[in-house]
Amino acid sequence: MFIMLGLLALAAGSGFIGALSGLGGGVFIVPALLIFAHIPMGTAVGASMISVVATSAGASVAFVRDGWTNLRVAMVLECATVTGAVTGAYLAGIVPTWVLELLFALMMLQSAYFTVTKVGDSIMPHSDALAERLKLGGRIPAESGQQEIDYGVVNVPGGAVLMVVAGLMSGLLGIGSGALKVMAMDYVMHLPLKVSSATSNFMIGVTAGAGALVFLARGDVATVIAAPVALGVTAGALAGSRLLPHVNVQSLRTMFVAILLLIAVEMGWRALSGF
Amino acid sequence: MKDVTADEERILRVWTPVILRTILVGAIAILLLGLLSMAWQSPGYYVARFHRLQNTGHLQNRESLALLVSSSLKGEPRPIMTLGLMLLTLVPLARVAFCFLLFLKERDGIYVAFTAYVLIGLVVGVILGRVG
C-alpha cells in the first residue's frame, strides 16, 4: 500500500511540475521513477508514455474547444510524429539503456534551452505555396476586445523533419517532446506561439498514443507501475493547470531550468556509467 | 486563409470534447477501480510484482484481449487495470478517427489521406509491438 501511495505521490508531483513548467509530466516522471523508485528505464518509459496520453487528452480538449488548435497543421505534422514515434518505440526495445539515458540528458538540455529562450510571436501574414495548397493558414481567436488576426504558415518540410525527430524521441523516451514540437512550429513554421502550444498539445497525445500502442502490444507496460503513474500524473497536471493562472511562472523559470539541468547531469552520468 | 466550416465547428467544439472526455473519465474510473481492488484484495501481490520488477528488470504482460476481458469479468484487478490503460490509449486514436470522418464528410481528399496515414501508422505500431 505504501509503495502504491508513494508512486502516486511521485507521479502527482511530476505532473504538477510538468503543468507549471509547460513541459509536461513525462519529462519529470521518467527520471523520478529511475532515481527514487529504482524502476528500470524501459518500464519507466512505458508508464510515462501512457501518462502523457492521459494528460494531453485532458488538456487539449479545452484548446480545441476554444479554437486555438490548428487541426490541419496537426494532421499534416502527425504523419511525421507518428512515423517517428512508432519507429522510436520499436527501437526502444532494442537500443541499449545507456543510449536512452544519454538521449534523455540531451532532451533535458533542449528543454532547458527552450525554457530560457521562449520569446514572442513572429507571425507571417501569408502562407508559402505548399502551405497555401494545404490550406494551413488560420485565424487567431479574438481575445479581450482584440480583433481576430489571420496568420500564414511557412516551411512545412522543415517543420516535418523536426517532427520526425520529436516523434522518435517521444517513442524512445516516453516524453511528449512538446518543447521540440513548439520550437518547430514557432521558429521554423512561424505559427503564433499560442496556436503552436495548443496544436502541440493536440499532437502530443497522438504521438504518445502511437508509442504506447507499441509498448502495450509488446507487453512492455508494467500495469502495477503504469496505472498509479497515469492516475498520479493526471491528478498532478490538473492541479498544476488550475494553479497556473495564479502564479508568476517567470519567477519559477530559474527553478525549472535548474531541475532540468540536474536531471540532464544525472542521466548523463548514468549513461556514462553504463557505457 | 481557411474558414472553419459549420460541420468542423460542431464536430470539433461540441462532439469531440464530449466523447473524448467520456472515454477519458471511463478509463480513469476503470484504472481507479483496478488499483483500489488490488490494494484491497491482494496488497501482497502488488508489492511482490513491484519488487520482482526492480530485481529482474522486466515483467512480461503480453496477454490476448479475450483473456484480459474474461479475467476482468472475474474481477481480477491487474487485467482490469490493463484494460483501463488500453482504453486510455484509445483517446488519441478516437480523436484521429473523428478527424478522418470529418475530412471524409468534407470530401477533402488530401486530408483524408493524411489522417488515414496516421491511423495506419497506429495499426502498424500494434503489429510491430506484437512481432517485436
**How much beta of chain B, percentage-wise?**
under 5%
* Protein structure class of chain A: mainly alpha
SSE series of chain B = HHHHH
- The coarse overall form of chain A would be globular
Mean residue pLDDT of chain A: 86
Residues in helices of chain B, as a percent range: over 70%
Give a short account of the largest sheet of chain B: none
SSE inventory with pairings:
The complex is a heterodimer of chains A (275) and B (132).
Chain A: H1 2-21, H2 26-35, H3 41-66, H4 71-92, H5 97-117, H6 129-133, E1 138-140, E2 149-151, H7 156-173, H8 178-188, H9 193-218, H10 223-243, H11 249-274
Antiparallel strand pairs in A: 1-2
Helix pairs in contact in A: 1-2, 1-10, 2-3, 3-9, 3-10, 4-7, 4-9, 5-11, 7-8, 7-9, 8-9
Chain B: H1 6-41, H2 43-56, H3 65-73, H4 77-105, H5 109-131
Helix pairs in contact in B: 1-4, 3-4, 4-5
3D structure, described in words:
The complex is a heterodimer of chains A (275) and B (132). By secondary structure, chain A is mostly helical. Chain A has one domain (2-274). Chain A is built from 11 helices and 2 strands, in the order H-H-H-H-H-H-E-E-H-H-H-H-H. Chain A has a two-stranded antiparallel sheet with strand order 1-2. In chain A, a hairpin with an 8-residue loop joins strand 1 (138-140) and strand 2. In chain A, helix 4 (71-92) runs parallel beside helix 9. Chain A is globular. The relative contact order of chain A is 0.23. The model of chain A has no long low-confidence stretch (mean pLDDT 86). By secondary structure, chain B is mainly α. Chain B has one domain (6-131). Chain B has helices spanning 6-41, 43-56, 65-73, 77-105, 109-131. In chain B, helix 3 (65-73) crosses helix 4 and helix 4 (77-105) runs antiparallel to helix 5. The radius of gyration of chain B is 19 Å and the shape is elongated. The mean pLDDT of chain B is 83. At the A-B interface, helix 3, helix 4, helix 9 and helix 10 of A face helix 1, helix 2, helix 4 and helix 5 of B.
